[in-house]
Design a protein that fits this description.
Chain lengths: 322, 423, 291
Amino acid sequence: MDKGIRWFPYFVLLAALCLIPLLFSSYVLGIASEILIFSIFALSLNVLVGYTGLVSLGHAAFFGVGAYASSLIALHFSDHLMITLAGGFIIAVIVSAVIGFFCTRVSGFYFLMLTLAFSQMIYGLVYRWGSLTGGDNGLSGIPKPRLLPSFRIDSGVSVYFLILIVFGVVLLGLNIVLRSPFGQILSGIRENEVRMKAMGYNTTLYKIYSFLIAGGLGGVAGSMYSYFNGFVSPKDVYWTLSGEVLIMVLVGGVATLIGPVLGAAFIVILKTVVGSYTDLWMLILGIVFILFVIFIPKGIAGIGSLRKKRAAGASVPLNAEN
Amino acid sequence: MKKHKLLYFLLLAIMVFISACGQGTQKTASNEAASSDKPKETAQQSEQPKNNGDAGNKAQETVKIGAILPYSGVYASLGENLTKGMELYFESVNWQAGGKKIELIKEDEENDPQASLRKFRKLVDQDKIDILTGTVSTAVAYALRDEVNSKQVPYLVAHAGGDDLTRSKRSDYIWRSSFNSWQIGTSMGQYAYGHIAKKVYLAAADYAFGKEVSKAFKKAFTDAGGEIVGEVYPPLGSNDYASYLTQIKSAKPEAVYSFFAGSDAVRFVKQYEQYGLKGKITLIGSGWLNAEDIRPATGNSGEGVVSTMFWDYGMQTPENKAFVDAYEKKYNSRPSIESVEGYDAARMIVEVFNNLKGDTSDKKKVSDEFGKVSFASPRGPLKLDPETHHVIQNLHVFKTVIKDGKTENEFVETVGEFKDPGK
Amino acid sequence: MDVIGIQLVNGLSYGLLLFMITSGLSLIFGIMGVLNLAHASLYMVGAYLALAITHYTIQNFLLALIVAPLLVGLISVLLEVFLLRPTYHLGHLSQVLLTFGLAYVIHDIVRWMWGADVQWLPLPDWLGGAVELFGQTFPLYRLVVMGIGFGVAAAMWILQEKTRWGAIVRAGLSNKEMVGGLGINIKLVFTVVFAVGGFLAGFGGVAAGPILGLFPGMEFEILILSLVILVVGGLGSILGTLIASLIIGVVDTFGKVLFPQLSLFIIFGLMAVVLIVKPTGLLGKQVHGNG
């Protein structure tokens, strides 16, 4: 495929996103910012779930670690953007290295439960370590990131563009990485790990790499969320957030690049819209999930025929017998 | 398969219909109530000339009140009761304040700070509210604090009781009409030493608010000369208190001070009896341990519980009797602590708008006006401290007794007036 | 010594309560390979149906203990036939999403029907008493629950090991195609297994009602805990689930007393250790040849 054509849709998407602050109110801008943050988060999880075939129910751990690390650095050390962002990323990578080391030894349902266990332990730590994390009250009053001594990214529009730039880098970066030979190896592990082993690949090592990418980018999403809200709470580490982001990936479409973005947009908008019309939003959300499984099992990205082939090719195993 | 699909659509249609109905009764409550009151308006004009005096030319204008309250999840019943209290008061003034029509916009707190921030932005950016009220969770109130402050939205906290909100996190735009953990814990700490026990075991749910209340109790109780013989902090939402209760019993205290609310309170009180502590070791705590909405579930297990609170159903003041009558007539159920909080918050907001004659253009002026409000609430004399922005109120002692086979709370005495020290 | 003894009984009774709730989940996952995230929701439905029965018809707890789980079993049949059966071919991840959606739906329906207030399932007087144990007061009903828990475990063991149905089910566990080839209606087997699982969940809900209380949200508290037990015990092993339930119950009880600061870690730490040391759980079967 011609390179220019391949990149074209992404640039159209990013250009369109640039126009949002011009066209819409600050309320819509806020929702758009949240969608982009959760898109980064869902994209990061999709590296594990979609491309490597490892279904994690503990991805909020990295989101939370990134958010708390950035916030604590901003509160106690420096509120410079590069320092808080790098801090969130590096600490998330370190944590995912530790968790990944243990989790990649098991697969299927056991992987799901082990990631859940680790994320809940981190939740317990955050909740318990009140003197540092503020316990269940969370951390508030986090200063907005500073880019230059005199320039602080504090307006809604500037935070949005910061998030948009990071989103663009993540999207295009993943596009390159996942199409590279490295990405092919990950897909190979998803399809048949035994064969990849037989071909001489150290699959455990590749699974850890995949875990590091997912965890690090999850941390970046968390950092973005702390910039956006100026607040973090243990809810950002809780398993319900892990479940929500997994649903974003599934609803959007696994193993596609655009799927998690569509899923994040769909879930955030659905929650916002339904939430302000009825208190029974869980009922509506639940029905939507069920309808998705029955009628659109390949996710939103699977609806278009263009992407059908790739989406259909992905089958994520979750049986214990792997 | 085709048959199946048809079935699902049918199911979906039914669900949507159901939820639409549920929504119809919930979200449009303010409009319904307002419209059903219209015929009454003329009848009441003679009684309320002050309110309707200049209503004629401003009748179309509205003041918008945004309320972020839990309508789903474990705190849903608190949110519902707060809303009922608010709507009862608004109805009593015909949904009029400062000559304008009151519009109440409700958003679900979801017990989630991040979701609440999203709702807050919607209320401010899209609905352009004049004033914000609500939030049950302290974490949510803390999360909103900075944006409330920078966007200069007057915010009357109607429940969340974390101390810092009117101390280190104090804002010119934030006031609190409900309570704080210091008031709840200190009142019992002062009372318990002279009246109940010298040796007390502390048991509180392990979260920030529970810790704050027990800390306040501990300080007041030990300052008075009492001794804490042990402390235990079960996680929030604990299933089983058996091991804690066994531990408490073997420490042989004279009383147990406990801070639990909602389902935790019910489980604790129930299991307290099942493990044979009831009647041997006095159970004392905050009013959420024997609240109106808890006692039906705890049944006779709650007998003998002594608590301090700013209000209870059984208070015999004329203000409270009028409130209880009106509430029971409208909703056919008893008011809870949260109903009173909602009722009082609504009254404060209305009085502020009345004093300003509906002029909400200067947000700072609106906020400052809260410091001047004072009235006799169902809970007693009520005013806000212009210094700390926190409510000044009396705290009372209540004891649960059995009357006609059911538990009731009996008013014992008033501990005194509590004004937060502000630090 | 007495305190340790009574705490041990506390832990065992809590563990057996958890076993009653988790056994159905284990059965369904073991045999059907479906991770039913709505399982705890069925537990909640059971408790609320029992509340309705004791409230509106004859105030008979024992009647509710039988009728409510049967109703939940019936609901399970409908769910299996209309929701799960058409989606088996989509794979496990789809079922996770499907059953999670179902849990959301059931949560709101229960809240809509019974309200958000906490409620309590009343016990008859003859069950509400207390007994002396190790010189301490111990609720009689908890002893009864222990007895019922062991009874359920024994019944499930007999059903699985000694009856024709058990043989079919065990065969289905190791090779679904073969069972189908033998002329046994595997669809029917699945429906029955799901119904039995639902019955057990409902039964656990009724039994737990007088100890834990009822409120919307009670199901999510139990869901995570029962998933932990499922994993620690090992997939597809009723005995493993029983042992894991007892271990979790006892560890949780003593953990609360000895290390109150760590109460949020202990259960998940235990699970992580078990998974790292023995990834198939305590008594899980390693099934080969399918990867």
